[in-house]
Amino acid sequence: MSTNLDDDDTPPELVDVSVMPSDQPGPIEEESTLRVPITLVTGYLGAGKTTLLNYILTEEHGKKIAVIMNEFGDSSDIEKPLTVNQGGQEVTEWMEVANGCICCSVKDTGVMALESLMERRGTFDYILLETTGLADPGNIAPVFWMDEGLGSSIYLDGIVTLVDAKNILHLLDEPAPEEQAGSHSEDHDHGSGPVLSMAHMQVSHADVIILNKVDLVTPEELEAVRDRISAINGVAKIHVTDHSRTPQIEGVVLDLHAYDHLDDLDFSKKGHSHIDPAISTIAVVTPPIPAERVPQVDSWLQSVLWESTLPAPADSSPDTHPTNFEIHRLKGILRLEDGSSRIIQAVRDVFEIRDSEPTQTDDDKPSPVQCKIVLIGRGLGPTVDPWRNSFESFVRGR
Ligand SMILES: Nc1nc2c(ncn2[C@@H]2O[C@H](COP(=O)(O)OP(=O)(O)OP(=O)(O)O)[C@@H](O)[C@H]2O)c(=O)[nH]1
Ligand SMILES: [Zn+2]
């Protein structure tokens, strides 16, 4: 398959950009000194991913960034060179790309390419990875949690999804391209129900959405797109751009800390909406839980994420209890009665519960005292009540 949008058909390119070091070093967090952050840049074919990366490479941001541009999405070549430019030296490696599919290739040979990149760590302090336009980030993100070796040297900072404001609405209403193409759809079984396009997957997994090509739409069209996007993913931060020129880079593409802490998630704009028939966002908010009940949270997540089964409280009504749902993304913060917190992160069926890392930037804000779990997925139902009741009764055992 080829596309006329793909006119920048260069091999995957890894560019190391040395910029003058910032004279204002930011707060040093233990994690960032030990592990290198990676941001995944996703978005449908032609949405503006490469434009964004080129923009970042030319802006001053005080960081040395290794950029992996994946332009092999539409070719089925077996091998593509991965070029690393470092201080005038060019090193070329060969990266096998089965089926031209980054979501599959990152799992095997791509992991090796990243590992060998990490042997040169110290020469860069940030990695940006552009996925192909047809990649489902839900398959990529867990690699950084699952792979022991990689997980010890790289951490996922966030997922940025470029959205083509001109084309996104019809993409959201189209059948999934992988199913049209008949390619490994068994890997990406999204169950029954309303049709989910790849655009849905990319929007639903995003921590940041860059609503690009604003020059090609009217203000009314832009608002319609924004409404639809926030109905699918109610927690991602949305930035509107022309030629992917984000207002700033830090906090928009770099240093998202999307998986470190969740205190600043904006739950207020959540609102349960049915603008998009396929995917929606809900937020379960409950009082703090006893520390000894954390294993029950783990079991509840296993049921919800692995079995797509919402544990039913004794008094639940079968009419309103969601039965045919699928969670794509889940983030949460558990407040325990002993005053400590736990972070929950899930992409599809891979999840973790871990201690909350204290953040220096949030010291001035009072800590939220409620547990909050945000779920993004299909078939979540008309209200949050069955979810909150299930969580409450299962976790507290009453
Ligand atoms: N009019 C307009 N064109 C844009 C904008 N952003 C990017 N483009 C153009 O859209 C085309 C595709 O942009 P790319 O950055 O290559 O998109 P991509 O997401 O990397 O594309 P693939 O790698 O093929 O998936 C290029 O011709 C860009 O110049 C924008 O805001 N407005
Ligand atoms: Zn795949």
TrEMBL record:
The keyword Protein biosynthesis does not apply. This is COBW domain-containing protein 1. Belongs to the SIMIBI class G3E GTPase family. ZNG1 subfamily. Residues 1-11 have a biased composition (Acidic residues). One of its GO terms (cellular component) is cytoplasm. It comes from the Eukaryota. One of its GO terms (molecular function) is GTP binding. Pfam families: cobW, CobW_C. InterPro entries: CobW-likC_sf, CobW-like_C, CobW/HypB/UreG_nucleotide-bd, P-loop_NTPase, Zinc-reg_GTPase_activator. It catalyses: GTP + H2O = GDP + phosphate + H(+). Keywords: Chaperone, GTP-binding, Hydrolase, Nucleotide-binding, Zinc. Residues 1-29 are annotated as: Disordered. Residues 37-238 form the CobW/HypB/UreG nucleotide-binding domain. Signal peptide: none annotated. Residues 326-381 form the CobW C-terminal domain.
